[in-house]
Amino acid sequence: MANPLQRRRRPLSSKAAVNLTAYGMMAPYMIPFLILTVIPVVTAIALGFTYFNMLEPPKFIFLENYIRMFLDDDVFPKVLKNTLLFALITGPVSYCISFLSAWLISEFPPSIRSIFTLAFYSPTLTGNLYFTWTYVFSGDRYGILNSLLLNLRLVDAPVQWLSDPKTMMGCLIIIQLWSSFGVSFLAFIAGFQNMDRSLSEAGAIDGIHNRWQELWYITLPSMAPQLIFSAVQQIGACFSVGQIVQALAGFPTTNYAADTLLTYMLDVGTVRFEMGYASAIATFLFLMMVFVNFVVTHLLRRFSAG
Amino acid sequence: MKLRVRTRKLNRSLGGNIVIFILIALMSVFMLLPMVYTVSTAFKPISEIYVFPPHFFPHSPTLENFLQISLLFEGFWIPMSRYVFNTVFICTVVTLGHLLLSSLAAYPLARLNFTGRNFISSVVRLSLLFTTALMLIPQYIVMSKLQIINTYWAFILPQVQAALGLYLLQNFMLQIPEAMLEAARVDGAKEHQIYFNIVMPNIKPAWLTVMIFAFQTIWNSSGATISTTLVYDEKIKMISSLLSQVVAGGTARSGVGSVMGLILMTPPLILFICCQNQVIETMSTSGMKD
Predict the structure, then answer these.
(1) Each residue's pLDDT tens digit, B163-173
(2) Which residue of A has its CA nearest to B138?
(3) What CATH class does A32-127+178-305 carry?
């Protein structure tokens, strides 16, 4: 039988020591991360099954919030449709434009390249500058777009761009696209800059004749990691469109014509204080994003491997 | 005989290059229009703000909007110095705190083989999906339980734990050669010494990037819903939320509002212009491999 004293004298096994160091170093970050990311997500999922108004303790009502969402709420289908419209248009379009423009920009000499990069990234940098779009789409004749159209006699009265349900979505999609060249765009720029030039030279010898063939056969496959990272960023951004809608078209918008799940969640949560229902909406959004993310990254991985 | 250096890249035509230059230049102009318009409106006299058709550039530029700021600032309840203090305090704590905490956590995630590493990595990656705006309500519920709504913490904590910084640092640290770390371990260095003396000095471009992103987010977010929902006391707000209140003040104030917009966009712009190379260098390791 081993002597217990002898066992204690043995040094901590190296795996346990590594674990201890690792968790020790991660703790200062992981504690706020737990409190402000993990716990909120878990709480939202749990509160989605309750009635909760912040004052009384949550009351368990199981699926009632979800039943209400899909069967009893006139607004929900509208905001869901808007969210999907925003996501399906701004997501892929912005992803493709970021990729293509980053590819084209990266071919220029460094000084021109950095100016173009700055231009595309500037809407993200300058945060609140989207307010300027109110001068473009202003509903009176002093608005830039209205005055232009009035002068050309294309319209005979100013168009209420941001409060008419018919034009709202179109304008907001343009503004959202304008503001969508963020971190994912930078990742593409960086990716292209670090591309292995010898690959494209080898391609030229192997019979690639123009830049489009080079893009498809050589550049795209070698950019797979960037493509996946940017996809994650874009999916996150295009499903949480809302800040611009809220600031430019009102909160809520006329007849909820341009509201998204995000602004509706804010409406339900911060105005009506129905936190249970707001949590159910948040959970629905989480699930949708995680699902889309899973499918898209899976497809991208399959594409780059095959 | 001198070898002729190829100036043109393979598979590129001059005509194509010109067309592409024009296309990208036009797109850049579109991207920059709001910024240019803000600058030009800042110099417009009040008589030119309501004219039909509107002037894109002022016909008789003036500094009168800039002079109005001092008038506007005189009537505040909260002294300007308080806003300045809040800005410096919040930005310093957020950028430095974010860099310190996330780099400390990134090192083991990138380079140490510990139990649960893959699980934690994938949780961090998944959380890249959840934007600040999306997390607002769930965070609000948790923060109100912890009673940190309407305190400096409500500004600081969400930014300090932003997953993007951790993710970027983790990826950047993968570039450091293993031999370098191993040599230090053989010499008897502890992991925290390796972190301070070897890893951190080698990832300086990533420091800057992560701090710039953190600054950008906190500076720009203070105008958004966060500054009305999570923090509503003017006494603890930053200059940027003060300025964005004027920017959002409507067309009647568009002259002064544009001056504010101009001031608001200057710090992140200058920072990014100065550090663009480091940011791009960091982003080049941002890819998701598995």
Answers:
(1) 999 999 999 99
(2) A40
(3) mainly alpha
